[in-house]
Amino acid sequence: MQVRLVASDGQTFAGSGYPEQAVRNLPEIQDYRATGTDDKMLIEGIEIAAPFLLTVRTTYPNLFKQWSAVSLRDCFGAQEDSPGSNLRVVVRPGTQPMDRPALVEIVFSTANWRNELALLGRINVDEMLRRPGTTSQ
Q: CA-CA distance, 107 to 91, in Å (whole number)?
């Protein structure tokens, strides 16, 4: 199976020639809508997801390392202000302490993700998940 990478303009390309570890640490783009095939494939919603992922990778690298996937299923691209438009992030299993419930998923509004990221950076998630009665569901 050939790994496909996505450029910030939504164009996909072969992921060959990159260090395996670098590619393995990138979050997978899931549940996307696309037009075209192979090197002519364009991923819809990447115009929202690309700046989001770049910001997380450069400003919140510890968060970025914990993310295994970003779902574009509910990302409406140009209609980023539409109700329900979001980026759904799946957290990598095993990147969190085992003695508390795991954070499994984080949902960001496509219209307000910058503010939500800043807020997440100020929240002590570990402390919140250690509160009595907290579950991962």
A: 11
